[in-house]
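re: the backbone from monday

yeah here it is again, tokenized this time
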């Protein structure tokens, strides 16, 4: 069973971003699935690399549209994006130094996705759909 399953509770009512959020959920589920069979350590580096790469594009797209639509929460939203990137880069650094963090990383990513998408991202839906 997947750690996170897409449902309407995650929808921000912007198709592009819903599709991108589904991909982010898939990335977290890939780590979870590997951990269930004792392979979390084997895929953690790849998952972090995928997450960093994918979020760069996703965050840029969100921020570009928020700016174009004069979304009033843009600055705060951008700060949250920057914080996640810094946290993931920190995890990546720790992992490269030999610290095994699969369970902690998975929990962090799950919680961040749920909180960010259902809280912060949902706020921009009405503005970006105008």
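seq for it, each position gets an aa:
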């Amino acid at each position: 069973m997947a750690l996170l399953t897409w449902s309407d509770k995650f929808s921000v009512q912007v198709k592009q971003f819903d599709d991108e959020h589904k991909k982010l959920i898939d990335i977290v589920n890939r780590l979870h699935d590997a951990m269930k069979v004792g392979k979390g350590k084997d895929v953690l580096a790849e998952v972090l690399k995928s997450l960093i790469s994918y979020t760069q594009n996703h965050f840029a797209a969100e921020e570009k549209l928020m700016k174009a639509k004069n979304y009033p929460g843009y600055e705060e939203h951008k700060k949250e994006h920057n914080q996640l990137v810094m946290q993931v880069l920190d995890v990546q650094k720790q992992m490269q130094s030999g610290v095994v963090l699969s369970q902690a990383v998975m929990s962090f990513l799950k919680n961040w996705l749920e909180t960010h998408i259902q809280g912060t991202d949902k706020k921009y839906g009405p503005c970006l759909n105008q």
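The mean pLDDT is 89. Helices lie at 15-36, 40-68, 74-96, 102-128.
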